[in-house]
Specification:
Layout lengths: L5 H15 L18 H11 L14 H16 L9 E10 L8 E11 L2 E10 L6 E7 L17 H7 L4 H7 L3 E5 L21 H9 L4 H16 L8 E11 L1 H12 L5 E5 L24 H4 L2 H6 L5 E7 L7 H18 L5 E6 L7 H12 L9
Parallel strand pairs: 4-5, 4-6, 6-7, 7-8, 8-9
Antiparallel strand pairs: 1-2, 2-3, 3-5
Helix pairs in contact: 7-8
Length: 389
């Protein structure tokens, strides 16, 4: 390998000092007046020109169920969601273990590995009170773009996990304490499903998979929503180890998990209500105004047909809550208000305007466990039945 000239190191050092001092270190000359050279300027103009053909129009779409059927069919088509899924089979499991915070804590976890496609196994973890008998309400849990779903039951496997747990990222364990069967699903690219076989992988956990799927006419959202549906297939089957109440089968997702929660709930009618935390906003103002390094929410041609308000509208007449911090730098609450305001038209057409809500928290992009549970009890599952520890 040839040696690197000293001038390279010197130039890099000067550039770093300039950045530290706030000095503009753009090495290129000023752009001529009147030119449009930044690629995002052209792409955002394309966003502005998009008029989603299936956006709900109360004047024209007098039957919301008919509109929803059209929108659902189109979403299945463009995401590549698997409507014909194999019956999940348990290929491995782990013995129950305590995930409580003390020796007398009654919360336990059981782990199962489901063969959901010939080439894919899905880790699904059941967290519940050790004496639970059922039928139990279900809290499907999708973590954000962190180290893995283990945060949901309070495990720390990398240093930053301790900070996340200190602000309430153990939502599955909290749900189990409230009487739910928490079903924590490991998403592709994270934790045990992290990429380990590529010769050279990208820094982001999911972008390689997202790109590989796009080459096949599939999408990260379609495959991942199918994974959620396969987990539901299993917990509703006779092979499931715990009896559940299908009328109280709900979904919670935060950040990247919240983006997936929106797609999964729109595509799978068995989900009776969904809360998307730190993940709701108009596409132009969210993905369109920042990088999309992981491929989350990227569906070819989506804006020809639907925007986020329409995606949420496909969840109607079931319950939905969008929650974000007012200072969230990725999905601020102002975006949640816009999306929920637009989707409320569909909910009103169904006569269930009280089933969709925008909830604000004061702070940045993070888990808000207290605010989430307050909204959950009020709007998602107004019949909480916590077990006594």
């Amino acid at each position: 390998m040839p040696s690197i000239p000293f001038s390279v190191y010197r130039s890099a050092l000067f550039a770093k000092i300039k950045r530290a001092l706030g000095v503009n270190d753009d090495p290129y000359p000023p752009r001529p007046d009147g030119t449009t050279l930044s690629p995002s300027q052209g792409s955002l103009a394309g966003f502005d020109a998009c008029r989603p053909a299936l956006s709900f129009d109360p004047a024209a779409d007098t039957d919301p169920a008919t509109w929803r059927a059209r929108g659902h069919a189109k979403l299945v088509e463009i995401t590549g969601y698997h409507t014909n899924r194999d019956a999940p089979m348990v290929t491995a499991s782990r013995a129950a273990e305590s995930v409580g915070t003390g020796s007398d804590d009654p919360i336990v976890k059981r782990s199962f590995y489901l063969k959901i496609r010939p080439d894919t196994d899905l880790p699904v973890h059941l967290i519940h009170h050790r004496d639970a008998t059922g039928p139990l309400p279900v809290f499907l849990h999708l973590a954000g773009s962190t180290s893995g779903v283990h945060l949901g039951w309070g495990a720390a496997r990398v240093p930053i996990d301790h900070q996340r747990l200190s602000i309430g990222a153990d939502m599955a364990r909290q749900a189990a304490r409230r009487g739910y069967l928490a079903v924590a699903i490991e998403q592709a690219g994270y934790g045990e499903r992290a990429e380990r076989h590529l010769r050279k992988k990208s820094p982001n956990r999911t972008i390689d998979l997202a790109n590989h799927l796009l080459l096949q006419g599939r999408t990260l959202m379609g495959d991942s929503a199918s994974d959620v549906s396969s987990a539901i297939d299993w917990i509703l089957s006779q092979d499931a180890p715990v009896s559940i109440d299908p009328s109280r089968l709900f979904l919670f997702g935060h950040s990247a998990g919240g983006t997936l929660a929106q797609y999964a709930a729109a595509l799978d009618d068995r989900i009776q209500g969904a809360m998307a935390s730190g993940s709701v906003g108009p596409i132009r103002e969210s993905i369109g105004m920042r990088g999309a390094s992981g491929g989350d929410g990227i569906v070819p041609g989506l804006l020809k047909w639907l925007d986020t308000k329409d995606l949420i509208g496909l969840i109607a007449p079931r319950r939905f809550v969008g929650l974000s911090g007012r200072q969230d730098h990725i999905y601020p609450f102002s975006g949640v208000e816009k999306v929920v305001g637009g989707a409320s038209k569909i909910y009103r057409a169904y006569g269930v305007a009280d089933r969709i809500h925008a909830v604000a928290a004061d702070g940045p992009h993070r888990y808000y466990s207290a605010e989430s549970w307050e909204a959950w009890d009020a709007f998602i599952d107004p019949r909480p039945a916590p077990l006594e520890a």
